[in-house]
Specification:
Blueprint lengths: L1 H15 L5 H38 L32 H5 L5 H12 L5 H11 L3 H21 L1 H6 L7 H27 L5 H46 L6 H9 L1 E2 L2 E2 H17 L6 H6 L2 H42 L7 E2 L6 E6 L12 E5 L5 E6 L5 H17 L7 E4 L3 E5 L12 H17 L4 E6 L7 H17 L3 E6 L5 H7 L3 E6 L1 E4 L2 E4 L4 E2 L7 H7 L9
Parallel strand pairs: 3-7, 6-10, 6-11, 8-9, 9-10
Antiparallel strand pairs: 1-2, 4-5, 4-7, 11-14, 12-13
Helix pairs in contact: 1-2, 2-6, 4-13, 5-13, 6-9, 6-13, 8-9, 9-11, 9-13, 10-13, 11-13
Length: 563
Amino acid sequence: MARLASIALAFVVAWFAPIWALVPVGAFIILIFVHEPVIKARRRAIAAAAFCERGIARMSNAWRGRGDRGSEFADDHHPFSGDLDLFGEGSLFELVSIATTAAGRRILAELFRSPGGDIRERQQSVDELRDRLDLREELAVLAGEVRGDIESADLGAWSTAPVQLVSRGERLVGIVIAVLNVITLVPAVLTFVNGRGTVIPFFVMVGVTFMFQRRVRPRVDEAIGAVSRREPALALLARLVARLERERFTSPRLAKLHATLQREGEPASKQIDRLRRLVALLDSARNQMFAPFAGLMLWNYQVAWSIERWRARAGRSIVEWIDAVGELEALASLASFAFEHPSFVMPEIVDGPALFDAIGAGHPLIDEEKRVTNDVTLGAEPRLLIISGSNMSGKSTMLRTIGVNTVLALAGAPVCATSLRIAPMAVGASIRIHDSLQEGASRFYAEILRIRQVLELANSGQPLLFLLDEILHGTNSHDRRVGAEAIVRGLVERGAIGCVSTHDLTLAEVADALAPRAANVHFEDQFEAGEMRFDYRMRPGVVRRSNALALMRTIGIEIPPSS
């Protein structure tokens, strides 16, 4: 508004006293410089407020549908991501992620889908970042500013592409031509001034220069064009990296990531600034007074060569810097999750055979006021829990509770439990399996393909947690009983631990056959005043009744009382 007023005033003043119009024009120029920082500060304030609002929404159970769903990371063929609601609306990713860059989102997704590395180091990183709310906010705001530019600029592809103009011999020829141009220019100028000397050497060098430029121009134009398009993204990356360079970390993983933001002892932000200064030199050649001399000195070629030399030495580090920022974003997401769930605990990581030993385990995606917790032990004895129970009593939720908390624990995050001792292990699940018209697969065929995938994980020799919901329910009782026993026996004998839920009480006999390595547990319900009531508590033994007929009657399906 002030800038518009100053321009309007300039026109009015110019009508009466043209010379005095310079005053409002000067005010307009000053306002441009003053207003730009205000716009940036306002933009950052809005981003910071949005960051805090999303955090409040997560803490008040109003986060579903308002965050990053990570839907592109969903994979129906993954051994457990679809079964455990890792991606999509209302997913674990949406609850946890505050990452904004492509690298940060990808690394967080990989921590959920296939966690590797040192879990304890990630736990230490999460503990260190948990209470550094200001850093997480600034990281989210700055990363949000660079996100679109870095992705559209494709800095990773540019930094690792084959380097142009790398021949030192050609570089030497370019320098010699530039020097000779300057040397021959002096007598040429004197010839035009006082008629003495000769211009022939100069025009010869002009011809040599033209031929040399014609030879290198395609590569020079490609190098200059590529870096010019990416300079704004590099500037934003430098700002983000500079903010992280000011931090000091004590946990090993964070200290290592911080060290990655340097190369040969020099901060990444300064190295990027050096490249940006080279790009700025290209603008000098556009000056009308300097352009003729720039042509003689092969200015664009000299600068392009220096840019490519920078890329040859430090270009590949850009990928490392972006990945380092991304991993910091992923760890900050886990730390934010820890900060927003103070009742969750950091699990104890136990090296050795497969183990899941939890007290008060609950599902983190269920609101706290509705969440019911249970104790679950899977280890040497029992290795297998066969969970029976009526419809909607909590069997599938129990499997997901174990699975999601395992994912969180192995990622390095706190878990929804009073305590948890867990061993690093692979996870395989068959909980939410669907038929596929595109792939011509029935639900039963899709299930046995997934079970084969789980068996392959067990055969790999690594510890395994398996979670199988209503195993083989698409076939007859005899085949189901025989097939299910063979599957779970094979898994248990390979050292795997896990749970199998079922409505078929004949499968409960499998636990008796494998005792003490297997045990029966169940969920039950109460039918009171025409309503089903569930307490979602897991109890030892086999369930003794079914609620299927009662449920059908409650929705109006006529079932004879004697049935």
